[in-house]
Amino acid sequence: MGNLAAQVIIYNNSSKTDKPFTYLIEDRMKDNIQEGMRVAVPFGVGNRIIQGIVVRIFEWKDKTKNLKCIADALDFEPILSKNMIELSLWMRENYLCSYLDAFHLVMPPGDFKEIRTVLNVNNVSLKNLTKEEEKIVGYINQKGKCYLDDVKKFMDHENANKIINNLKKKNIVYNTLEIETKINKKLEKYISLSSNQSKDDILKDISSRGKKQIEVVNYLYKKKGAFIKNLMEDTKASYQTIKALADKGLIKVTETEVFRNVIKSDISPYKRFKLTPEQLKCFNTILDDINKNGSFLIHGVTGSGKTEIYLQIIEEMIKAGKDTIVLVPEISLTPQTIERFVGRFGSNVAVLHSKLSYGERFDEWRKIKEGKVKIAIGARSAVFAPFNNLGLIIIDEEHETSYKSGMNPKYSAYEVARKRCDMEGSSLILGTATPSVETYNSVLNGEIKLFVLKKRINNKKMPVMDIIDMREELNNGNNSIFSRKLYKEIEENLKEGKQTILFLNRRGYSTFVSCRKCGYVIKCKSCDITMTYHIQENKLKCHYCGKEMIAPKICPKCGSNYIKYFGIGTQKVEEQVKKYFPKASVERMDTDTVTKKGSHERIFGRMKRGETDILIGTQMISKGLDFPNVTLVGIIAADTSLNLPDYRSSERTFQLLTQVAGRAGRGDFEGRVIVQTYNPEHFSIQMAKDYNYEGFFDREILLRKEFEFPPFTNILSIIVYGKEKEQVINVSKDIHSEIIKNLELIYDYNLIRNIYGPNPALIEKIKDNYRWQILFKCSDEDLFQLKDIIRRVCINNRDDKKYRGVKFNIDINPSSIL
Ligand code: ADP
Ligand code: ZN
Ligand code: ZN
Question: Residue limits of the Helicase C-terminal domain (predicted)?
Fold first, then answer.
């Protein structure tokens, strides 16, 4: 047999090293190196040893070329499966990112240089060991827990891997992964009794007046030991009491690691429902085809029982020994959502979301990788959950823009999910009340199988939507933020003791500040964006970069005192509500009020217990919330999303109105929705009013076709950005002409006709960076060619001298072109 070589992606963030490097695998290492393992390799002229990951192993026949050899294997088992390697390579190709960016997503969370393999000895009899095996077992036992690299050093033996492997086969040694971070271990004070004496003996040392101390000893005697927190909670003992016992030497205090538990332990079981005929039909049909690698869309109004269908299908997957990934938008990853999955499946669930620390995320990742759970629920990046036997991916609220990543690789979780399903033969279920135009188009093309759930569970009615023309309010002399109708309905609701939700998609107090004399509008100095007034701090803030300034009393330009605050944000709504309804208890939920950990849950809890009469909020309250006592939803301004200069603005508006309306009337009482707008005739508002998705789609798809927008074309956006305006303009012109030159070489004039720009981006400056944009529209086939050219022009040259100081942001079918 010939020699083996490996392609290795090395951990170095320069464009020059953004390619696979080939290394020879020496014979002695053959058994230790597999695809998906991390290795140490010599690199550069100095042969500095650096880390990398093996993405391919192949036979090396070329004897003429001198290759460097892999220095060592850093893993005992591959940390990436073959499929995950393939997925990363596909992402790099598809989303025009670097190898490292692509691999970063499938690797364990945290800094993968710090992942180490830990070896442990099982509690079994140790007979018939070879000398070397004995030596290793002895070493591990002596250390208690020990790292693979330490064993290797200790053995100073090239066959360490082989010996450990044998021990593993004999079920004597087992291995797991660990990550070293500052927050790695969570230590807490653990209290136990100091000696094994009988209880009475211990109690002899306590005077009979020390009642609490006696109680603590009894407690510890019964429990054998407890974390100080639990001890103090359960016995109501003070810190002094515990200290007194410790001073007497009766108890000992140690620091013990608590296993991070992301999921609360006191979640009550979530009752399983008997499916309705509508649900059952959907369930049965999907189940019949579940092993056929298909795609399904459950188009069901909010509250139609989609989640219950997911839960019961997952149950079947578990019976079949298969794993499921459930994606939900980050803002829907509420305790309520998690509780339903954990309440049904208990410790079979791993939860992944951005609020977890690296350590916590690593623990969840490991549970999945080691097969300890069957279900992973999380936001976008949970699509990379490293299951080995994936049977199903569910994407709830499929239309949400947060499924498209804004960072490299700028992947779409839907596309990645589809790719994973194709590689692993799994099925994909999408669920939503308002399918994205692209998805619904795929349904009509026969690529996705459709199920419609028309009714809410228990035939609860969808709330009635009332559209209020705010121009008319103004004509009738009402210039408050509430229409007369909304005001009356809130009043009524308060009287009846029902809850109200008021929705506005903008936080802050007023959205722009301008001078009525000279027309000056205050914009952020670093961004081309108006600043928002925040009343509590009396400051103007930029919602892009966070810059703040004291709210001015006179115009910074002309010095007049005609400075005025325009546009309304949630703070103003709160102020007005309190003014008009002084007796109501009012709460606001937006990014400004939920910054502290747990504040989300607290607001949520007060709402659930009925302590809040009126909840005001942004998108954050538009989904996932299920409060039976909410009977009125007011949408303060439906126009905020409609007026955005983006081809998706009608779609967004339709989705938002439908979602927000879905918060009303979920309990035993019918719901009402009041929509305030300056565009009452707009079709997305009219169709939303009638819950007519098909009607909306039919209109929208014609517009998309007419103006050549997705799904009829792909949009590729390049934004050139940097601190020097001149340079940004020059570079964008430069790459524009380079791309055209390349296209001319292959005579693709059709593509050339569909290039727009370079133009200043709609937001010309963000965080002190000037931004110029080039847009392309092209078919799937042309996209392939275009990507190839862009890779050559922008990516392979990104460290070129002439591009110094600028960066490229390349996005394929971005969620917004702003
Ligand atoms: P969706 O996910 O479509 O919004 P859910 O699955 O959350 O709908 O269901 C809405 C409500 O109806 C939930 O409170 C759920 O517990 C309940 N529910 C779902 N299916 C059934 C059923 N078959 N019988 C009774 N109640 C159900
Ligand atoms: Zn700014
Ligand atoms: Zn002025």
Answer: 550-717
Which ligand gives the minimal distance to the CA of 530?
A: 2
At the fourth CATH level, the homologous superfamily of domain 3-108 is: PriA, 3(prime) DNA-binding domain (3.40.1440.60)
Annotated binding residues for Zn(2+), written as ranges, equal 515, 518, 524, 527, 542, 545, 555, 558
Mean pLDDT within 397-406: 92
457 Cα nearest atom in ligand 1: 12
Token pair of 787 as six digits: 């990507």
**Alpha helix positions (H), 669-779:** 683-689, 693-706, 725-745, 749-753
Nearest C-alpha to atom 20 of ligand 1 is from which residue?
305
**What is the predicted pLDDT for the residue at 113?**
65
Query: What is the reported pLDDT for 362?
Result: 84
Could you tell me which residues are beta bridge partners of residue 52?
10, 39
Task: Output the CATH code of domain 464-509+568-705.
Answer: 3.40.50.300
Determine the Cα–Cα distance for residues 212 and 181; give it in Å rounded to an integer: 39
State in Å: Cα 543 to ligand 2 middle: 7
- Which residues define the annotated binding site? 515, 518, 524, 527, 542, 545, 555, 558
Q: Is the pLDDT of residue 557 over 70?
A: yes
Q: Tell me how far the alpha carbon of residue 80 lies from the centroid of ligand 1, in angstroms.
A: 38
pLDDT at 623: 65
pLDDT at residue number 700: 94
Interval 159-197: pLDDT, tens: 777 788 888 888 888 877 776 654 455 667 888 887 767
Q: Closest Cα to atom 5, ligand 1: which residue?
A: 305
CA distances for 655 relative to 118, 501, 613, angstroms: 49, 17, 26
* Contact of 458 with 441, CB cutoff 8 Å: no
Ligand 1, CB within 6 Å, residue ranges = 273-276, 279, 300, 302-308, 457
| Contact present, 231 and 191 (Cβ < 8 Å) | yes
The one-letter amino acid code at 567 reads G
Nearest CA to ligand 1 atom 15: 305
Confidence at 604, pLDDT banded by 50, 70, 90: confident
Decide: pTM greater than 0.70.
yes
Cα 73 to Cα 33: distance, rounded to the nearest angstrom: 6
At 350, is the secondary structure helix, strand, or coil?
A: strand
CATH number 3.40.50.300 given to 277-457? yes
Sorted by where each begins, the domain ranges of the chain are: 3-108, 115-181, 187-257, 277-457, 464-509+568-705, 714-812
Provide the CATH number for the domain formed by 115-181 in this structure: 1.10.10.10
Mean pLDDT of the chain: 86
Pocket test residue of 270, 271, 272, 273 for ligand 1, highest count of atoms within 8 A of CB: 273
Nearest atom in ligand 1 to 308's CA: 6
